[in-house]
């Protein structure tokens, strides 16, 4: 789904580009493919006998097994009043629809940017689309902030029994929640900050409403649109697995997702780890056909889905503990992520860099690279 005309958004989105995990709330933006996608998500009339009267009193929240993500409500980001009463119905939503804004991939990760973005989306939806309020219930920014989109969405979600009707997926607004992910994901995947919050928000929604993870889908599954982009759409199976892991009591996965076409130091580190595991692969930072083939072979050998994409499940099998005194390709992998000389020798200098990372991320400062330290290193900004 998109929320602004190309002309209007262009004035706002100059200089936008990438992201980082900041910690507990969310948001997003919008450019060229906007018109086609947004036009499909019109308001859904709801029978008046199912509308819940507005109640400004606090709403009790039942205890949950998953962590409750921090969400900035409409009052926090300075939302305008809806032009008509927002409809909240006495039934639970049965599914979640993932969208992308198809906008510039912002490099402004601040809370202020997130609030400005939320206001711009609402303005566009009301004054350019003619809707009563923001179309989607929630938005996630590339900077890792979650924001309530449409008024009363957070109220309904917190109750776990009612649904705030949005305007994001034609013919499915009375039964599905919409999450907008800031950015364009036709050929690149979302940043880790956004993805981690998407997992957290989906897990919370699924638990509150009893939604099956199989009902987490993309906009294109319902309407004629490219949304949420080829790359993000391809991540939905992994998203469903990560959300299920969170619901089962495990931590939400926070590993990056590496696939063919990526070219960065995370890929270089993954290639070193594949070599450490005995697979023949060129270490050049480019996730090409050879890297895909080696990844598939490793996945098959370890009982994983052999899709050639390195995500949470593959990372947890691929990493290995390294410490001072080791000399191997796994050491080269952590050295690459820490941006120090990748000579494969785990000496005092490498140990010091590892301890510095551990201290900065609130981990046990022991200089040993175990699962949590690997995870933190792979999530370092590029």
SSE inventory with pairings:
Layout: H1 6-12, H2 34-38, E1 88-89, E2 95-100, H3 111-127, E3 138-140, E4 146-148, H4 153-159, E5 163-164, E6 176-181, H5 192-209, E7 216-218, H6 230-234, H7 236-247, H8 265-276, H9 289-301, H10 312-318, H11 329-337, H12 348-360, H13 371-378
Parallel strand pairs: 2-6, 2-7, 3-6
Antiparallel strand pairs: 1-5, 3-4
Helix pairs in contact: 5-7, 8-11
Q: Overview of this structure, please?
A:
The protein is built from 13 helices and seven strands. It has two domains: 6-247, Peptidoglycan recognition protein-like (Lysozyme-like), CATH 3.40.80; 265-378, PGBD-like superfamily/PGBD (Muramoyl-pentapeptide Carboxypeptidase, domain 1), CATH 1.10.101. By secondary structure, it is of the alpha/beta class. Strand 3 (138-140) and strand 4 (146-148) form a beta hairpin. It has helices at 6-12, 34-38, 111-127, 153-159, 192-209, 230-234, 236-247, 265-276, 289-301, 312-318, 329-337, 348-360, 371-378; strands at residues 88-89, 95-100, 138-140, 146-148, 163-164, 176-181, 216-218. The longest helix has 18 residues, at 192-209.
């Amino acid at each position: 789904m998109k929320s602004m005309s190309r002309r209007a958004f262009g004035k706002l989105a100059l200089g936008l580009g990438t992201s980082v995990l900041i910690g507990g709330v969310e948001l997003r933006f919008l450019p060229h493919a906007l018109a086609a996608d947004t036009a499909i998500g019109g308001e859904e009339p709801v029978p008046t006998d199912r509308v819940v009267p507005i109640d400004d009193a606090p709403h009790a929240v039942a205890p949950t097994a998953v962590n409750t993500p921090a969400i900035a409500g409409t009052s926090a980001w300075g939302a305008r009043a809806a032009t008509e009463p927002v409809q909240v119905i006495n039934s639970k939503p049965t599914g979640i629809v993932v969208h992308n804004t198809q906008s510039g991939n912002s490099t402004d990760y601040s809370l202020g940017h997130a609030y400005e973005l939320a206001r711009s989306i609402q303005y566009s939806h009301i004054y350019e689309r003619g809707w009563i309020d923001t179309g989607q219930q929630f938005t996630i920014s590339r900077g890792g902030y979650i924001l309530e989109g449409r008024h009363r969405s957070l109220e309904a979600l917190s109750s776990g029994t009612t649904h705030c009707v949005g305007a994001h997926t034609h013919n499915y607004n009375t039964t599905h929640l919409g999450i907008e992910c800031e950015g364009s994901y036709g050929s690149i995947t979302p940043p880790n900050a956004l993805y981690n919050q998407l997992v957290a928000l989906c897990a919370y929604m699924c638990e509150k409403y009893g939604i099956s993870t199989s009902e987490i889908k993309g906009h294109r599954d319902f309407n004629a649109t490219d949304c949420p982009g080829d790359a993000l759409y391809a991540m939905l199976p992994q998203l469903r697995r990560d959300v299920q892991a969170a619901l089962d009591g495990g931590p939400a996965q926070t590993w990056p997702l590496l696939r063919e076409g990526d070219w960065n130091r995370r890929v270089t580190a993954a290639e070193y780890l594949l070599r450490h595991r005995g697979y023949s692969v060129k270490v050049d930072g480019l996730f090409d056909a050879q890297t895909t083939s080696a990844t598939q072979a490793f996945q098959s050998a370890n009982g994983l889905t052999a899709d050639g994409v390195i995500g949470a499940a593959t990372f947890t099998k691929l990493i290995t503990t390294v410490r001072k005194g080791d000399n191997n390709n796994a050491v080269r992998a952590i050295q690459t992520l820490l941006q120090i000389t990748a000579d494969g020798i785990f000496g005092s200098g490498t140990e010091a860099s590892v301890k510095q990372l551990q201290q900065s991320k609130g981990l046990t400062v022991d200089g040993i690279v175990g699962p949590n330290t690997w995870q933190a290193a792979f999530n370092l900004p590029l």
